[in-house]
Automatic annotation (TrEMBL):
One of its GO terms (cellular component) is plasma membrane. The keyword Signal does not apply. It is a multi-pass membrane protein. Keywords: ATP-binding, Membrane, Nucleotide-binding, Transmembrane, Transmembrane helix. GO terms for biological process: oligopeptide export from mitochondrion. It is found in: Cell membrane. Residues 31-313 form the ABC transmembrane type-1 domain. Residues 348-582 form the ABC transporter domain. Gene3D superfamilies: ABC transporter type 1, transmembrane domain, P-loop containing nucleotide triphosphate hydrolases. One of its GO terms (molecular function) is ATP hydrolysis activity. The chain crosses the membrane at residues 30-51, 71-91, 140-163, 169-189, 253-274. InterPro entries: AAA+_ATPase, ABC1_TM_dom, ABC1_TM_sf, ABC_transporter-like_ATP-bd, ABC_transporter-like_CS, P-loop_NTPase, Type_1_exporter. This is ABC transporter permease.
Length: 586
């Protein structure tokens, strides 16, 4: 559960500076919106003068001509104000949409640079929530609330100036009332912001829950765990409601108090003004105009108070987005591009590597392991021995604590991440299939490959046949996580992808585990072809698949126990013999 709300390190000023920097890209539109805003506010303020003229010169003096002119003036002002409102509304809403789109793009690009350790701490559902709901809030705030707040502030200042011109005494009374209105804003706004952020955190928990339950729907249903899942989800929904209720409470209190205070002030001022008209110190037109401005000023304060809650909500949402953006990638790219002339595949060496996962005990202590150029090496060992971790370290998903991993003589830390990773193709234990078409799934290995190259790779991976039998062949959509394919079919797609990527280092994580005997044979042949001329490391649980590699490395609890050929190890290594006996291979 993310509960960073109470320890937020982001200030409102930082949020506003961030939003301003985003808006700075659209200076012309922002300027247009501000001009439209000023014109609209100015026109509404002028309306008060029209009213004053209409009352004093028209109604009271029985002057029909003057009345006509004043009414015409009022109509023109209304038209101008309406046009300006259209322009302002259009531009501000556009800016809101644009900014939230920009935020989504930059946050997503940034997330892609963060290492897996970051995602091990933050649930994907929570990240999705930050994307969707937080950016939507920012969009509303920039597109609506902020513009309303600015418009109301301008209207308030303009009204105040015109009120002062109309009647300084009455204005003084209004000014005395202002602090009374500001007190609740000062006291309650931080509470609104705090609970706004908390409720976003709770909504994010919901996202995470949905993501997990639906992702594992088969397990949920197979264990009849629907009631359990539903009740846990209901508890999360209740938590959202409870937090939202607190936010709503403070917001409503804020709005209500401000309404009460500002309207009471206006009534009292109207009473005082009416007495001035009776005593002849003020004309009826002046009082009408003054009250018009006072209502506008009061309305503005009410609007500001209403949207200030919304703006605080936006600040809360922005905080969470800024936090994502501020997360530094724990892995820093080196500068060098890997270049060994590309004639031979690179050697891989782990020299005195010491490593532990964050918060775990030491996994590798001065581990040494060398793989020669073009050599095919199999890693064998009990679950948890550290085989997958070696892959992760080579790909720099994590950095070692001490020691060095090298491609040829080049430490991986000095290579640029993209150059390092472009040397390596990986087929993971659980084949990854994206929710796009078959052709796009294979082309992921090399986005520039032609349709013909994709098909060639699919044929080599023994995938072409079953792909052709799919409803739309290579254009068939595979559904989320490839739900429409069997385990073996998914694996062959992943192998075709690796073939197409055509990289000098190959990492295979028990790539044939999900295949039946017939397809296993086919895939094994494809893999043999794929391994040709590449430095390959295979993680294998089943020894049958690795009997023919150049060298087998037996690992146990983070150590290399022994290395050798299948027959040598059978003879000399007790641990390996045990594995082989278990698998009836000796
Ligand atoms: N992200 C992680 N955070 C903390 N510990 C981890 C993490 N990933 C793996 N480990 C731990 O590191 C050890 C080695 O794991 P690793 O996945 O490398 O083993 P493996 O030999 O590949 O196992 P298997 O054959 O079951 O896949 C295990 O004890 C595991 O619990």
């Amino acid at each position: 559960m993310s509960d960073s709300s109470t320890h937020s390190t982001v200030t409102t000023t930082q949020v506003l500076a961030w939003i301003s920097s985003l808006l700075a890209h659209y200076r012309l539109k922002v300027a247009g919106a501000i001009v439209a805003l000023l014109v609209a506010a100015g026109a509404w303020l002028l309306l008060g003068q029209g009213i004053k003229l209409a009352v004093d010169q028209g109604f009271l003096n029985d002057n029909a001509d003057m009345l006509n002119k004043a009414v015409l003036g009022v109509l023109v002002i209304t038209a101008v104000a309406s046009l300006a409102t259209y322009v302002r509304f259009y531009l501000m809403t556009w800016l809101g949409e644009r900014i939230s789109a920009d935020i989504r793009m930059s946050v997503f690009s940034h997330l892609l640079t963060l290492p897996p350790s970051f995602f091990a701490q933050l649930r994907t559902g929570e990240v999705i929530s930050r994307f969707t709901s937080d950016t939507t809030i920012v969009q509303t705030v920039v597109g609506m609330s902020l513009s309303m707040a600015i418009r109301s502030t301008i209207t308030f200042i303009g009204s105040l100036v015109l009120m002062t011109i109309t009647s300084p005494i009455l204005t003084l009374c209004v000014l005395l009332a202002v602090p009374a209105v500001l007190v609740p804003i000062r006291l309650l706004a931080p509470q609104v912001r705090k609970y706004a952020r908390l409720s976003q955190d709770r909504v994010a928990d919901l996202g995470a829950h949905i993501d997990q339950s639906l992702h594992e729907i088969m397990t949920v249903q197979a264990f009849n765990a629907e009631p359990l899942e539903a009740s846990q989800f209901n508890a999360s929904v209740d938590a959202v409601m409870t937090t939202a209720q607190r936010r709503i409470h403070y917001r409503s209190l804020l709005i209500g108090l401000i309404m009460l205070l500002s309207l009471s002030a206006i009534v009292l001022i109207a009473w005082f003004g009416a007495r001035q008209v009776f005593s002849g110190d003020m004309s009826a037109g002046e009082l009408s105009a003054f009250l018009f401005y006072a209502v506008m000023a009061g309305g503005s304060v009410a609007t500001v108070s209403e949207v200030i809650g919304e703006v605080q909500r936006g600040v809360g949402a922005s905080e969470r987005l800024l936090e994502l953006l501020a997360t530094e990638p724990a892995i820093h790219s080196g500068e060098t591009d890997f270049d060994n002339g590309n004639t031979t595949p690179p050697a891989i060496s782990f020299n005195n590597v010491t490593f532990q996962y964050p918060g775990s005990s030491c996994l590798f202590n001065k581990l040494n392991l060398d793989v020669n150029p073009g050599e095919k090496v199999a890693l064998v060992g009990a679950s948890g021995a550290g085989k997958t971790t070696l892959f992760q370290l080579l790909l720099r998903f994590y950095d070692v604590k001490a020691g060095c991993i090298c491609l040829d003589a080049e430490p991986v830390t000095s290579l640029s991440l993209s150059s390092l990773r472009s040397q390596i193709a990986m087929v993971s234990q659980e084949p990854v299939v994206f929710a796009t078409s078959v052709i796009e799934n294979i082309r992921y290995g090399n986005p520039l490959a032609s349709d013909e190259q994709v098909k060639k790779a699919a044929k080599a991976a023994f995938a072409h046949e079953f792909i052709e039998e799919l409803e739309k062949g290579y254009q068939t959509q595979l559904g989320e996580r490839g739900v429409r394919l069997s385990g073996g079919q998914k694996q062959r797609i992943a192998i075709a992808r690796a073939l197409l990527a055509d990289r000098p280092v190959l990492l295979l994580d028990e790539a044939t585990s999900a295949l039946d005997a017939r397809s296993e044979k086919m895939v094994q042949e494809a893999l043999n072809k794929l391994m040709e001329g590449r430095t390959t490391i295979i993680i294998a649980h089943r020894l049958a698949t690795v009997k023919h590699v150049d060298r087998i490395i037996v690992m146990d609890k983070g150590h290399v126990v022994s290395t050798g050929k299948h027959d040598e190890l059978l003879e000399n290594d007790t641990l390996y013999r045990e594995y082989a006996e278990l698998q009836l291979l000796s």
